[in-house]
Design a protein that fits this description.
By secondary structure, the protein is mainly α. 77% of the residues lie in helices and 0% in strands. The longest helix is centred in the last third of the chain and has 23 residues, at 90-112. The protein has a domain at 116-149. The radius of gyration is 19 Å and the shape is globular. It has helices at 14-34, 38-50, 54-66, 71-84, 90-112, 116-134, 137-148.
Length: 149
């Protein structure tokens, strides 16, 4: 942990600014590359490198999403998908956005009521579950179990 728990406005030292820029770049690159960044990169990086509480990190990550920081990558994907004949459906984006807005409001209300240590465990378990599914380790595990039986 590089900095003490961030509770008040942060003194913007050169080291602090560089760390924040690196976290932002990493999240931006991964967001453009595979469509992730906020929760998977920014939240753990803010907790580990800046010693943010889980609540602070999640709120900061959501704050970044309120700015049009991903508009360039989104427009690029839109243009390229059009060229490839697999267009992005703006109606689906609109419907997802409505669900996201409502869900994030209620999710944040729930998160604030959960203790930081438990919230970290929930966050970690979710990342673990998603990684197992994405790597298809669950399928490999089930095949292995079936061989044992």
């Amino acid at each position: 942990m590089i900095f003490q728990q961030q509770k008040n406005p942060t003194k913007m030292t050169v080291q602090f600014i560089l760390i924040v820029i690196i976290i932002g770049l990493a999240a931006g690159i991964l967001s453009g590359l595979v469509g992730v960044g906020g929760g998977i990169i920014m939240v753990p990086a803010l907790v580990y490198f800046l010693n943010y509480s889980q609540h602070q990190a999640q709120g900061t990550s959501l704050g970044v999403l309120t700015l049009p920081v991903v508009i360039i990558a989104s427009l690029y994907y839109y243009q390229q998908c059009q060229k490839m004949g697999t267009p992005i459906d703006l109606k689906v984006i609109g419907i997802l956005a409505i669900g996201f807005i409502i869900g994030s409001y209620f999710g944040s209300k729930i998160a604030i009521s959960i203790e930081t240590a438990m919230l970290k465990k929930i966050f970690g378990a979710l990342l673990l579950f998603i990684s197992i599914k994405m790597l298809t380790l669950d399928i490999l595990f089930m095949k292995w179990v079936k061989q044992l039986i």
